[in-house]
Amino acid sequence: MTRRSRRDKLELHVKQLRLAFPTPWPVTVVFAPGSRVPKLGEKRAVRGLTYREGRKLYVMLNTSYPEWAIHEVLNHEWAHCLDFRPGAAELQRSQAPGSLPDAAQRQWEHEQYHDDHFYLHLGRIERAYESWED
Ligand SMILES: [Zn+2]
User: Fold this and answer.
1) Strand, helix or coil for residue 99
2) Which residues on adjacent β-strands are paired with residue 110?
3) Each residue's pLDDT tens digit, 89-130
4) What's the pLDDT band for 76 if we cut at 50, 70, 90?
5) Which of 26, 27, 39, 52 is most buried by its number of CB atoms within 10 A?
């Protein structure tokens, strides 16, 4: 058996996701050190995020975390990509109650983006991922 590098394993994981879980819009995965990843308040940089530019989705993964955590976050962000429907993000944002304090605002957004539909995608991905490992 050949030993794969950390980066090769991540690239393979992305390839497996593309094959098994095609996304409505094309996804580019960006590997970024913590210093390039946005922060939540005063806390350290987020582990990963998904965002849209035009008709393209981007998954940014914070490579400062341990390898197992990056794979876990990749599955999580891919579930967002499957869930990203044209107009949905904008609709959710426009409904966000703007007067809420930060913590409540974040809680509200978290609930919007992590609904039952999202976890169905994530559950399917995680079950497949267990069979891919090695
Ligand atoms: Zn999420």
Assistant:
1) coil
2) none
3) 554 444 444 555 567 766 777 777 888 989 999 999 999 999
4) very high
5) 27
Range of the domain at 105: 6-132
The rounded Å distance from CA 133 to ligand 1 centre is 22
How many domains, in total, are found in the chain?
1
Rounded Cα–Cα distance for residues 73 and 76 (Å): 5
Q: Kindly state whether residue 83 falls inside one of the protein's structural domains.
A: yes
Q: Full-prediction pTM beyond 0.85?
A: no
d(CA 105, CA 101) in angstroms, rounded, equals 6
Alpha carbon of 79 to ligand 1 centroid (Å): 8
Question: Do the beta carbons of residue 35 and residue 28 sit within 8 Å?
Answer: no
Gap from CA of 7 to ligand 1 centroid (Å): 22
